[in-house]
Amino acid sequence: METVTLQKFGEFKVETHEDLGRLREIETQVLDKLNLGFAPEVISILDNEDARQEDIEKIKLKLRQDVLSRLIGRANLVSHLGKTKAGEAHEFLNVVMRLGMKPAKIYILAFTLYFSSHELEELAARSFSRAIIGRVLARQLALNALDQDRVELGSLLLEMGKIPIVLYEKQNHLKPDSDFTSRYHPYFGVRMIQKFSLPDYLAGIILNQHFSIDRNGFSATAVVDLAHCVVERSFMRSGKFVVQSESLGDQTDSNLLTVINNAFQVVGLRKYLEIKLPSKPVR
After folding, report:
1. How far apart are the C-alpha atoms of 178 and 91, rounded to whole Å?
2. Angle, nearest 10°, between helix axes 121-140 and 251-266?
3. Maximum CA extent, the chain
4. pLDDT recorded at residue 159
5. Is 115 in contact with 124 (CB distance < 8 Å)?
6. How does residue 85 score in pLDDT terms, banded at 50, 70 and 90?
7. How far apart, in whole angstroms, are the C-alpha atoms of residue 93 and residue 45?
8. In this structure, what are the phi and psi dihedrals at residue 214, rounded to the nearest 5 degrees?
9. What are phi and psi of 216, to 5 degrees?
10. pLDDT at 256 (0 to 100)
């Protein structure tokens, strides 16, 4: 048994020396060379709450068009996902302000990385499914606005550490090693949190191994776990996220289905959603 340090997040256990060697190869061949299409410093502007408006606006010039389109789409869902601003935002500054600067940074990274290779499409589908359902669950459980954001973003990045592993296997023409990926994606997830200076709570969600509650009931981390279980079961059975509506014609049910449908649509993953409606009674 070997260990590697994750600085303030402690040590991570590595099963074998061979595994350690592969971890180092993935770091040097992939993680250290991840191509965002722009320097990480471009979006570090969003870490500064006092950033100038013109500097924020310049970020959009560095983004791929598909990333920008998805970001705008996600920003325009906020009135349906627990925030209050209605109407559509199209100016980049308004998009960032609507999402919040740190969530906008996380979404830019997620859209850039998850959609960087065809081999990552199913991982993207699972991750965005988990984020969408996590947000819906958090809202239904009446978590506060901050925890709703944490559930959504933690769900989105929970398996982010699989990205460098998948890209490494692609580059080296290797068969997918599900055991290695399952065991070590949390390590790479935290390394990516560190690399891109993302909030510490995300590392806590990635490394969490227990179902946790707090004085208000389910913690944000627990809701991420619930979303993960729901999405994984659905993908294992159907290769997509399947929602079954139990009530015909119910307005609340219909509104929720619309929210879920729109959320999948704006990130370009609608084909990974199936909505099953109840059969009409035979007269």
Report:
1. 42
2. 150
3. 68
4. 97
5. yes
6. low
7. 12
8. -130, -170
9. -95, 0
10. 85
Token pair 């070590």 in the structure block, residue: 184
Check: pTM over 0.90? Answer yes or no: yes
DSSP label of 113: H
Q: What's the Cα-to-Cα distance from 85 to each of 54, 63, 104, 242, rounded to whole Å?
A: 23, 25, 16, 29
Q: Which two tokens stand for residue 63?
A: 């983004």
- Picking from 191, 203, 128, 130, the residue whose alpha carbon sits closest to that of residue 164 is 191
Residue 27 has a CB neighbour count (10 Å cut-off) of 17
Encoded tokens for 189: 């997830």
| All structural domains of the chain | 2-276 (1.10.3210)
Determine how many CB atoms are found less than 10 A away from the CB of residue 175.
6
Between CA 229 and CA 146 the distance in angstroms is 22
% of the chain with per-residue pLDDT over 70 = 92
The CA distance from 160 to 182, in Å, is 12
**Alpha-carbon dihedral sign for residues 240, 221, 206, 211:** negative
Determine the average pLDDT of the residues in 175-184: 95
CB 96 within 8 Å of CB 104 = yes
Q: How far apart are the C-alpha atoms of 154 and 127, rounded to whole Å?
A: 10
**Given pLDDT bands bounded at 50, 70 and 90, which one contains residue 244?**
confident
- Phi, psi torsion values for 140, nearest 5 degrees: -65, -30
Model confidence pLDDT, tens digit, residues 93-132: 999 999 999 999 999 999 999 999 999 999 999 999 999 9
User: Could you give the 3-state DSSP secondary structure of residue 58?
Assistant: helix
**Tens digit of pLDDT for each residue in 263-275?**
999 999 999 999 9
Tell me how far CA of residue 183 lies from CA of 128, 132, 134, 186, in angstroms. Answer: 21, 25, 23, 7
Structure tokens at 254: 């219909």
Q: Which residue is listed with tokens 């119910």?
A: 250
